[in-house]
Design brief:
This protein is an alpha/beta fold and about 130 residues long. The chain has helices at about 15-25, 75-85; strands spanning about 10-15, 30-35, 40-45, 45-50, 70, 90-100, 105-115, 120-125. Helix content is about 20%, strand content about 40%. The termini are close together. The model has no long low-confidence stretch (mean pLDDT about 95). Pfam families: Glyoxalase. It comes from Metabacillus malikii.
């Protein structure tokens, strides 16, 4: 586990700043900074920076291998984000599903797609030892 004095940082491309801000704020992420070429969010305790780069957008995104997201340790937090996404009509790339059913690494997951085709995965493992 990481120490609580560390924050993971991820930089991704975005095609337009305002629509990016709207998406991530609806998701529940707090806008930390906004510049002419990028926006920074508190993404569930970590830092996501969306850099304006319309030419860098993946026009045909696939779930694997490129995505990012959150693995929840509490099922209630997973369900809260899922319900928030549904209620705020955020675009799903993949509805809620079960992966590896019946195996120790079984987990529930769903994917959202942001306005720049970045894929976000949210998941919860039934066995907490499988998180890492």
């Amino acid at each position: 586990m990481r120490d609580t004095n560390k924050v993971f940082h991820l930089a991704i491309p975005c095609k337009e700043l305002e629509e990016t801000v709207l998406f991530y704020e609806k998701l529940g992420c707090k806008l930390a900074r906004k510049y002419d070429d990028r926006v920074t969010f508190n993404f569930f305790g970590d830092q996501v920076v969306c850099h304006l780069n319309p030419e860098g957008i993946d026009l045909s995104p696939k779930m694997y291998p490129r995505h990012y997201g959150i693995t929840f340790l509490e099922r209630s937090e997973f369900e809260e984000v899922l319900n928030n996404a549904i209620n705020r009509e955020l675009p799903f790339f993949q509805e809620k599903m079960v992966r590896f059913a019946g195996k120790r690494e079984e987990h529930i997951t769903f994917f959202l797609i942001d306005p720049s085709n970045n894929l976000l995965e949210f998941k919860y493992y039934h066995d907490p030892d499988m998180v890492y």
